[in-house]
Amino acid sequence: MSSLSSTLENILQRYQKNTPPELCELLETTKKNVRKMIDKEKEIENLQLFDHLVPPSSEKSEKVEKEERKVEAEIVVEVQSTVIEETFSNDIPICGLFPITEDEWKLIPSTTKGRLTLDLVNGFIKIIDELLAKKSDYESRYFKLNRADKDKVLQWREYETKDLVGRKWIFQDDVTEKLPQQDKYPFLKYGMNCLRHCKKIEQTRRKGKVIIIAQHYD
């Protein structure tokens, strides 16, 4: 506004002699009004009416951001803990082959169990259940599989006789491949007998291969 007042004053001084009195008077009045506006603006600035709208200092912002990051980190840790807990507490079998209960375990003769534990035998059951689910998944997605997996499905079909159609089954060799070396012999020697005793599986043989058929599944 000060520049506007200065401009009007320059115009007035420059053209005052050649300008009608009415116009000079108008310019003078305008200049005074502009000066009043400038003075009013300065008064408003001195009142500091807008100081409360000044943004917080950078130090305060950094403190707030630090607290927010801390809260976010705590939330992430809490969510991760919940996921881990839910993942490892979920014992529902994928393919419906449920673990042996303690009551069932007590009914198995010691000569059948050997040195096996209930946890180890249920570990065998879990592997069998997962392999059954994998086999079912491969069979349902045959045309989307790679060449090696398609060959696996074709091998299953080659061994699938009429009495196996519609039933859940896998090769015994597939299970032993998944087991640690120290568990392979106990599974073959005692594990299979325990599973048959509890009627979790049946066992048959086709073309030199032992086939495990699940009895308890949905």
UniProtKB/TrEMBL annotation:
One of its GO terms (molecular function) is microtubule binding. GO terms for cellular component: mitotic spindle; outer kinetochore; spindle microtubule. Transmembrane segments: none annotated. Gene3D superfamilies: Ska1 microtubule binding domain-like. GO terms for biological process: cell division; chromosome segregation; mitotic cell cycle; regulation of microtubule polymerization or depolymerization. InterPro entries: SKA1, SKA1_MBD_sf. It holds the Pfam family SKA1. It comes from the Eukaryota. PANTHER family: SPINDLE AND KINETOCHORE-ASSOCIATED PROTEIN 1 (PTHR28573). Belongs to the SKA1 family. This is SKA complex subunit 1. It comes from Strongyloides papillosus.
